[in-house]
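Example 328, ligand DP6.
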Amino acid sequence: MANSPLHATALAHPNIAFIKYWGNRDDQLRLPMTGSLSMALDGLDTVTRVGFDPDLAADRFILNGMEQSGAALNRVASFLDYVRRLAVLNRFAQVESNNNYPSGAGIASSAAAFAALALAASKAAGLELSDAELSRLARLGSGSACRSVPGGFAEWLPGSGDADSYAVQIAPPEHWDLVDLIVVVDRGEKAVGSSAGHKLASTSPLQTLRVAGVPERLEQCRIAILERDFERLAQVVELDSEWMHAVMRTSTPPLYYWTPATEVVLWNVRAWRSQGNAVCATVDAGPNVHVIALAQEADWTEAQLRALPGVLEVLKAKPGGGAKLIED
Ligand code: DP6
């Protein structure tokens, strides 16, 4: 090992939650109130290189070519502390991360960011983690990142504690030809990020009801995926998204993520489905809409979406794989 820098590079995709994670029972450890289920997004890539270097006096974090400081750097440095503790390593690291998708597109990048960082940093530190251990580690950086580790269609098992709260793949990406059409209606930074949002969830009187219904919705979603039953998927995905936004809107203070353009997209997706098209929609903690469609409907749906008022851009993603090491 001597004094040579220890380094590794990993690639991971973001994911879209079909059944949402909203609210923690332990904010520090990111132990969620409920399970959740998602699809990884192929073609949207975060590539992260980590080098532990004895010559560094502090951690450095460079995102899309720009040196980060403040909260962004602190979040990465705190995460690296977990890795250093596990590996009994006493070196600072340089982390360079690049996304091939626009930062302003409103796609939550923390899932891909911490999945790639968990893999690259643990490898660079000489740790050999199992799939479950890697997913657990990523969870400590960002909850949804634990689902980007296995990729494909992944379910986060809430667990009884830190040891058994991680995600597993329930079906590989090639299992079902779905697409996610990411409809960008706003490129701005959101006012309240997910981490702050999770802390408000319990202030909503609806959160208890939402949480009580999650096991049944997870079951419906699992069946829909395993049986490739689009209508079942559509109903449960839209219902679960509505529950999360109902909790957000009734929190103290309330969180309103949608804009009028969000509503226009949702309204039209419902109309297209009632006409027989295999499309449905879900919205994360922001105004942009993820329109899920059968692949054969993707071109038609994309053209319709682009013609709607307020739509700035439409990105297209197929189901993607898990986090993986690449040449560095
Ligand atoms: C609305 O995983 O981004 O996208 O753990 O604080 O990083 P942190 O939160 P994050 O929350 C995701 C919230 C969501 C729903 C989901 O992806 O399940």
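Summary: Residues 150 and 322 are 4 Å apart (CA to CA).
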